[in-house]
Amino acid sequence: MSNLDRQAALSVCGGRGFVVAEPVRELLAPRRVQLGESTEVRRLLPNLGRRMVGAWCFVDHYGPDDITSEPGMQVPPHPHQGLQTVSWLHEGEVLHQDSLGCRATVRPRELGLMTSGSAISHAEQSPAPHPRYLHGAQLWVALPDSHRHVDAHFEHHAELPQATAPGLTATVILGSVDGAASPGTTYTPIVGADLALTAGADLRLPLEPDFEYAVLSMSGEVHVDGVPVLPGSMLYLGCGRGELPLRAASDAGLMLLGGEPFAEEIVMWWNFIGRTNDEIAQARSDWMNGDRFGEVKGYEGAPLPAPELPPTPLKPRGRVR
């Protein structure tokens, strides 16, 4: 999915200097962003207070939206470099098409994972006809310098492993949870899991103490380590946790995001991740000139133009503002 913000700002993320080494409870409020013609998203990362959680560097939550009489998600062809995109649905369907010729319809709790490497472009649309509701999250994972030029590829995993406990079903999106490992390709120590809790569930989820974590609330009424987390908000949890207390007052859905703190500083602007301002400027030029990123064949409509770069390059400022 694209960042459609026409006033996209350069930001530098990563580096371990601002990682919270102990458990915390830092509630992150979303910023509302219009995505295409009819979809509004709640942007949790990058956030005013925090830019990354492990290698997770971009998180949008959208829906549930009734799109019965709407086109739903309509994101024209756009480029990516230096990252992986993770498409995750609770309701609805999203048709993925990319410049490699891959075409797949991603459905609820199926993993659509696109690794951009140095260059790829794709489009995402609600198919016609489409289900009544659209509800999900779009996330990006930053690629480390050692793998940011890997060959671009797309993975669609319709079946994912699960870990279960009384009142909990955890679907493993990336990495592993309690011995259940996702087939999705990863390039850094990372975890992503969809947590479905039943009303009355009261449990402790095992965690990796060396990882930093955050929880995104998708639906329902749930307390995470004693903090009520409303749908569309995210609780940053820091590092140093061996377990996470969860208590659900109703049926609820969460996304657990975590990983080893990302050591490298990255420059992220629009739909590109690089290491310098010059890399980002070159990527924008290549996209606008029709170089390197390829063409999404079969899409009816024009590709998305890049916004203008800011007049001055950004200086590194670390993981938080």
From TrEMBL:
Skewed-composition ranges (Pro residues): 304-314
Residues in coiled coil: none
Region (Disordered) residue spans: 299-321
Residue ranges of every copy of the Pirin N-terminal domain listed in the record: 41-141
Pfam families recorded: Pirin (PF02678), Pirin_C (PF05726)
Domain Pirin C-terminal: 193-293
Family: Belongs to the pirin family.
Name of the protein in its database record: Pirin family protein
Species of provenance: Streptomyces cavernicola
